[in-house]
Amino acid sequence: MTGPHHGISVEGAQDVAPFLFELIPQWPLLPAPVIDAGNRDASAARSDIVVRDEGGHWRISSAHVTLSDYDLDDGYMLANTLIGALIAAYVAQDDGLVSIHAGAVRIGDGLVLLLGDNGAGKSTFATALASRGQRFFADDRLILDLRAAAPDAPVGYSLAIAPKLRLPLPQDADTGYRDFVAENSVMNWPEMAVLRPGPEQAAGFGEALPVRALIHLRREPEAGQPVLTAMRQPDMVRLLLEQLFAPHLSQQGELSACVHLAQTVGIWQLRYASAFTAAETVISHFNGEESA
Known about the structure:
By secondary structure, this protein is α+β, with helices and mostly antiparallel strands. 32% of the residues lie in helices and 29% in strands. The protein is built from eight helices and 16 strands. The chain has helices spanning 17-23, 40-45, 75-91, 122-131, 175-184, 233-243, 251-264, 275-291; strands spanning 10-11, 49-54, 57-62, 97-101, 103-107, 110-115, 135-138, 141-150, 153-157, 164-166, 185-189, 192-195, 208-219, 227-230, 244-245, 266-272. The strands form three sheets. Strands 4, 5, 6, 7, 8, 9, 13, 14, 15 and 16 form a ten-stranded mixed β-sheet that branches. A hairpin with a 2-residue loop joins strand 5 (103-107) and strand 6. The longest helix is centred in the N-terminal third of the chain and has 17 residues, at 75-91. The termini are far apart. The relative contact order is 0.14.
């Protein structure tokens, strides 16, 4: 599979490939190398990622991230874990690249990144923004190039990973959002839906934009109207350290990356109860900033 500078070799994933490409349908493939049957062990040693079927349970090993404790017997979990290994191999090819656990949507001329712990509502918020006409980039994982192409902003790259939503949808989801989900769903389970928005709604693989702002999502069911406030840099750096994935960097390198990111873009905290009300607040704020 394609990496930023050379291919990422994956061995043993034939059985999961159809499922995998429902989740990453645009990730480019390279021709498989010719394997010398008499030297198969050496070929396997060069693989970035190896997938093994161990009696109905699957294990994934990677040269770039520790996954040895995974014992997978579910196709979705296997494919999702394999995507994580692919991302690790991707960023390992370039010291300037990192992966961040965040949603991302284009508003105006740049990306607004949505950060928070599991359950903060990143997927719902990112797709709520997309259902309102903003261009979807990510609901979970995004590649960042910290060597700014613009004078003052790192660049975010889409991997075109299909967004995933918990089901049932929130009770306060509006009709437009429910229609967006229904029109773009490609796989459904009782507890989850996988979406594939069209090219007019979502970024393609490798599409890039400068990062404009970081928003820490604080979902508080008892909150009233959404409140967007500026965030202190030390607080954002601590949050980024929890969300950044860069196995090729030292701890000091990760800290430097997070400080750089927090210093070069707007940093905000959003307290909200409903993503569908708060999405309008975010769109209005950043479109207003652009026109101001």
